[in-house]
Automatic annotation (TrEMBL):
The lineage of its organism: Bacteria, Bacillati, Actinomycetota, Thermoleophilia, Solirubrobacterales. It comes from the Bacteria. InterPro entries: Tscrpt_reg_Rrf2, WH-like_DNA-bd_sf, WH_DNA-bd_sf. This is Rrf2 family transcriptional regulator.
Amino acid sequence: RRGVKGGYAFARDPSSVTVLEIVELLDGPVGGGAEGIFAEAGEAARGVLGGATVADVVERENQAAGAAMYYI
């Protein structure tokens, strides 16, 4: 759905939408047609992306934004 400011709003709860679903919706199957080590890399990427939800990403970003950065 269209969001208030022209973006998009989720029709499902963000905790039920995986990053893999979004990537594959926009770009097609991750690692599709790959062979050998590249097929293994694709499977690893699918595992990581499939294990992270949109809610997880938002939480990580919020934590990172609140973390103090000290440089010398």
